[in-house]
Amino acid sequence: MSARLLEVASGHLRRLGPKGVTVSRVAAEACMTHANVYRYFTSKDALLDAVAGRWLRDVEAELARIADGPDPADDKIEHLLSALASMQRETLVHEPNLFAVHLDATVKARPLARRHRVRLRSFIEHVVEEGIGANAFVARDRERAIAYIFDASYRFTHPLPIKHDADLPRDLTDARLGAVILMIQRVLRTGTL
Fold first, then answer.
1. Burial class (CB in 10 A: 0-12, 13-18, 19+), 21
2. Res. 193: pLDDT tops 70
3. pTM score, two decimals?
4. pLDDT tier, 155 (very low <50, low <70, confident <90, very high otherwise)
């Protein structure tokens, strides 16, 4: 039954936006009472986060594929950051209401966003450790290296600045991200943190 509720909520989110989605409307279309919806989701935010969570699982599956792939660690850093930035920008353009839920969950640090951040960190950590193990990275402090990657790429991988930069031409954003990735790779290779 929760799968049906998610399908209905996804359709409402797409058509009406986050503010237009109500538990009562979702329940009515799913042929149940709104009280029954609360058996599966504790609030409207929990319902919308579950919708966004399905999208984030797809994002994370792609990032996991990159992190576990055969490429060298410095290439993986580039592919991870580029893929994350691209998938979020594409969602902002093609599914702005879904992106709005992701942004709201991130800004308000709801469990959905915290879990996603933990998964992102695990992918980055995996690649950094792989790079150190292969002597491709000379990071003296693994934690500092991971924090540096997040800090340096923030503008391109966090939903808030992505939303703020929505009107920038794509080629300009890609060029700026490319420059940041080159800087991250250089710092990891030289250990200048």
1. buried
2. yes
3. 0.92
4. very high
pLDDT digits over 22-68, tens only?
Answer: 999 999 998 888 888 899 999 999 999 999 999 999 999 999 999 99
Whether residue 183 sits in one domain with residue 143: yes
Contacts of residue 56, Cβ cutoff 8 Å, sequence gap at least 6: 102, 112, 116
User: What CATH number has the domain bearing residue 171?
Assistant: 1.10.357.10
Give the Cα separation of 188 and 109 in Å (integer): 29
Distance separating alpha carbons of residues 121 and 133, to the nearest angstrom: 18
> How far is the CA of 105 from the CAs of 55, 113, 117, 188, in angstroms?
13, 6, 11, 31
Residue 85 identity? A
CB atoms within 10 A of CB 53: 19
The domain of 9 spans 1-41
The total of structural domains in the chain comes to 2
